Structure formats: C-alpha cells, structure tokens
Amino acid sequence: MEVLLKEAAAFEKSKMSHMSTSDRVAASREAKRLILAINEFYKKNKDAKLMDVMKRLTEKKKKIEKRLKGTPLTT
User: Fold this and answer.
1) Superkingdom, according to UniProt (predicted)?
2) Residue 38 confidence (pLDDT)
3) Cα gap 38→53, rounded to integer Å
C-alpha cells in the first residue's frame, strides 16, 4: 500500500511537458494502473485520503488524454 502511494506521489510530481505521443500513452496507462490498484484498497477501508489521491491522478490522466486526442476539427 505504501509503495503505491509513493508511486502515485512520484507520478503526480513528474513533469508532463515535452512528452512524445508514446510517452503520453505510457503515462496514461501508468495512471490507470495506479488508480485501479488504489481503488482496490479503497474498497476495503473507505479512507478519504485514498479517494483524494485517486481524484488527483484522474485529473492528471484526463489532461494527458485530452492532449493525446487533440482538438476536434470543426467544419
């Protein structure tokens, strides 16, 4: 559990600028892995701190995925 929280903290602190597309895909998958793993612990003890960590990771994941998808073209 502690290892997951340390990995999540390191992921949150990591810079996301100047990333290649493959780096963004890898970062998105890493965020998903962390969120799902923390969620398993959250289901057992309903700790609000775990929910906060998952929310922060989800925000960062959404930003990464938004950049991956790009802006839609309007005609």
Assistant:
1) Bacteria
2) 94
3) 8
Structural domain for 63, as ranges: 2-6+20-68
Q: What is the dihedral of CA 6, 51, 67, 21, to 10 degrees?
A: 40
DSSP secondary structure string for all residues of 24-72:
HHHHHHHHHHHHHHHHHHHHHH--HHHHHHHHHHHHHHHHHHHHHH-PP
Whether 57 maps to a domain, the answer reads yes
In a domain, 13, yes or no: no
Structurally, how many domains does the chain consist of? 1
Residue at 24 is within a domain: yes
Q: What is the pTM of this model?
A: 0.83
Residue count of the chain, please give it: 75
